[in-house]
Amino acid sequence: MRFKVLTLNSISVKGLDRLPRDRYEVAPEIGHPDAILVRSADMHSMEIPLSVRAVGRAGAGTNNIPVALLSQRGVPVFTAPGANANAVKELVLAGLFLAARHICAAWDFVRGLQGEGAALEAAVEQGKKRFVGHELPGRTLGVVGLGAIGVEVANAAHLLGMRVLGYDPQITVQRAWQLSSGVEQALSLDDLFARSDAVTVHVPLTEQTRAMVNAQRLRLMRDGATVLNFARAGIVDETAVIAALESGRLSAYVCDFPSPKTLRHPGVIALPHLGASTSEAEENCAMMVADTLRDFLEHGNVRHSVNFPEASLPRIPATARIAIANSNVPNMVGQISTCLAEAGLNIADLLNKSKGEVAYTLIDIDGQVPAGLIERIGGIQGVLSARAV
């Protein structure tokens, strides 16, 4: 079978090379695509073809993708978690140094100097007094969110000699194993803010995390603290941050999201969304999501999906595979099994997983998938999508 993949952005060649040309047709304009590869293009206003079976984002966030709509269609949305973690980690560390040593303000000062020789040297010596900073060892960094990026930031800050507090009530076992034993657990967000000289956030933007960094929590911080936001703009209440900068509670706000409120404020270091803007990160994201997309299209396996459960089943020789997405309600597997029994088919292996309102089933049957079976399964109330793999 040959698959068609629609690209909505320029995708790294190294990623596209993971899709063999003898099995995949990949283009920015293509009819009836089986899958979509996207980076930053806004898909909310796009009419997504009904032929689409999967969407892969070469990045971590999905704010530009209508995930709820695709879930209703039984379409998984894949991301590349951790593929850009090192790039973001490096920028967070750079942000800590920029704020601690007032580097941006000092650089601007030097660029405005005039004169030469002794006069220039005198101006430098006179002006540098304004930019006395502090060192990082011994200071406390609070890391909110201990996913791939948060863990790397926490470990790196610990190696720099900082005391590190971490908070993530949903930390996975995998990330917990990766976290340095020197990172301390904060009891709550308020506890983390109250004990930190700097706070960096690494969580997705949801209704629960919107304005997580707000006036109440900023008041808990030590005077002269720093807030870093390389996650999503909406996680931080900018009005509260500006007020905290004016009062001296904050000495710096370092972010990746310039806005009219923060653009020219002297206490703000705003970068042009550089978090994952390295050639290595773009290549890693593209390769990771291409591999994930291929495994789903060719084998039905699900990894790194934001709306589907993890589901991976080894293939058994001389069997055919059926992949089914359905609403997570009782007796779905029973009804599907009945369809197979009525068709006289033997189940060689079966995997059923659920995540929220979506359940996903992989079934390997002896022999071939008979004509009409997928349509009968698709007709069961609650089935969102079904296909022979």
Short key terms for the protein model shown above:
single chain; about 400 residues; alpha/beta; Rossmann fold; Alpha-Beta Plaits; 3 domains; 7-stranded parallel β-sheet; 5-stranded parallel β-sheet; 13 helices; 16 strands; about 30% helix
Describe the overall structure.
With about 400 residues, the chain is α/β, with parallel strands linked by helices. The protein folds into 3 domains: about 1-85 and about 275-310, 3-Layer(aba) Sandwich (Rossmann fold); about 85-270, NAD(P)-binding Rossmann-like Domain (Rossmann fold); about 310-389, ACT domain (Alpha-Beta Plaits), CATH 3.30.70.260. The protein is built from 13 helices and 16 strands. The strands form 3 sheets. It has a 7-stranded parallel beta sheet with strand order 8-7-6-9-10-11-12. The chain has a 5-stranded parallel beta sheet with strand order 2-1-3-4-5. Strands 14-15-13-16 form a 4-stranded antiparallel beta sheet, with helices on both faces. A hairpin with a 2-residue loop joins strand 14 and strand 15 (about 360-365).
